[in-house]
């Protein structure tokens, strides 16, 4: 079985290298190679890598922190274009309690203090389901740190991160932006330029991210027949040869 990790893509070499580092961590944990493809900006694309291994069953993990266009539309289109007829696609990485634990670790290592105002900053989306995912993560993070966490966006959606920071600015109170991004790139740059007192690093190569991705790959190998039967009942719109996993 082939393992494929699919990310967004960035022009920043540091961000590309970071995705490669995550894949290497997962590969070490699973004891088998994990290939990487990108849906935007650079290649190889999922269609290219899947087309080159049509003879081999493949598990594809979307390295996205919520549902959205890339997960619901781009990846299915790439699978269909590849001609590969045995691809199991897992759900996106978030929302997941494991990511909330990573966010808390990033806050702690950044010097966050309990009386700080906290903003969860995502890339953003126009997809209602993805927006619900992001609000779920913000709610879980609020419950975990015991304080309200606002949600803001670097690209699509309101409020934009700089506006959210300005709106929470109070004398004697710091504003901390918790980056809900996977890697370095344009959006992380926007968070750092938002005027916040503290901006956490992307989730990146935190061990919790690699463990979550490894778990997605591992779970995809269990009870496949039952899973396919479930998905045939629930995801009738899926292209031929493609199954979705909860």
TrEMBL record:
InterPro entries: CbiX-like, Sirohydro_Cobaltochel/CbiX. GO terms for molecular function: lyase activity; metal ion binding. SUPFAM superfamilies: Chelatase (SSF53800). Keywords: Lyase, Metal-binding. This is Cobalamin (Vitamin B12) biosynthesis CbiX protein.
